[in-house]
Design a protein that fits this description.
Elements (H helix, E strand, L loop, with lengths): L5 H5 L3 E6 L2 E7 L13 H16 L6 E10 L8 E12 L2 E10 L2 E12 L14
Antiparallel strand pairs: 1-2, 2-4, 3-6, 4-5, 5-6
Length: about 130
């Protein structure tokens, strides 16, 4: 998935950690991401949270997309800040899932995001065939 994720890579995101039902991504706020108030534009914070959500809901190798996402901005972030988005699975049943993402900077909560996912069938990585002994 990362190989084809040109949007996240173009924004300088990096994968910190991924496991079954969770993912952590990070990004540093650049000049191009600061709005007219001199703070990080909310759209970039949302995009980081959305990317962490995407990796968390695809972490079990089921093709999954976002059905809905909502963010609440708690505090502003500034130029040069390193933002860390930690996503975790809250519930997964059938083809639907709910994930919470907390975006922090130096341990301070910047935003809280909740995403709803929908599995669309198939896998990201083809299943491997058992190898003969």
């Amino acid at each position: 998935m990362w190989a084809n994720d040109h949007a996240s890579k173009a924004l300088g995101m990096e994968i910190v950690e991924i496991g079954a039902g969770f993912a952590t991504l990070a990004m540093t706020i650049t000049t191009e991401m600061v709005n007219g108030h001199g703070i990080a534009h909310g759209g970039f914070i949302f995009t980081l949270a959305d990317s962490a959500f995407a990796y968390a809901c695809n972490s079990r190798n089921d093709n999954t997309v976002a059905a809905q996402g909502q963010i609440t901005f708690i505090r502003p972030s500034k130029l040069g800040a390193r933002l860390v988005a930690s996503a975790r699975e809250i519930n997964r049943a059938g083809r639907s899932g709910i994930y919470d993402v907390r975006v922090t900077s130096a341990g301070t909560v910047i935003a809280e995001f909740r995403g709803h996912s929908r599995s669309i069938g198939g896998t990201l990585v083809p299943p491997t065939e058992p190898q003969p002994r």
